[in-house]
User: Fold this.
Amino acid sequence: MPANPGFVNAARQACVICETRTALNTPPERPEPGIPLWRRAAIWPVAAFIRLWLMTVRFEMPAADLAVITNLDGPTLFILWHNRLFMTSEIFSRYRRGHPVHGLVSASSDGAWLAAYFSVVGMRAVRGSSSRMGREAASALVEVLRQGSDVGITPDGPRGPCYEMKPGAIIVARRARTRVVLVGMDFESSWRVSSWDGFHLPRPFSRVLMRFEPFPVEQLKDRDEAARLVHARLVEMNPDRKPAPVRRRA
Assistant:
């Protein structure tokens, strides 16, 4: 039976996984400034475990979406839901290696550990007020995009409510005037954490259908309408086959 041309075939995925294995012990292009060596060393075993875990996950996507995620011609603003964040380091390792990606991380002590994790897996952190997405944080992300690097934003993070669209991603996209890509993930099988967003953890050796869809820049002119359209597409691109566990109040 001929292979479906719309999806990446197994051989291509195998090549990607082999390349990712090579990258497991490859350090980032340059260390993140301001992160102590001891913190990086402490987080490395966790990062290595997550990398090995995600290398077992099979990524599938339409050929058109593969062309979108592997297009390195310029900076890109990626928008995805907070409960899909576990996959991001592997996505960028497989498909955008050598193209720096930044995420907004709070200036708290917890944020310092996340920034250390980013530096170990080859991502970079922009420290700022992630809860309010204030002017300073938005300006920092816009500057990163204008310098040619990628940025990832979770419009419902960091505390929710889940799948509620906050305006920060649209504000950054309008100011930066750069390419915007919406990210979708359909998990064949996953565990869901009892958190505010029902965080997804894909089961080892399971399959994830990935989607990468450009959002037309001209539709960013009206901020409220753009937020409505982005929200609708993200919900459609990210189905939840398994309901989130009910959180019990103490």
The chain has one domain: 10-237. Helices lie at 10-23, 37-55, 63-69, 88-95, 109-121, 135-146, 168-176, 223-237. The longest strand covers residues 179-187. Residues 13-31 have pLDDT under 50 and may be disordered.
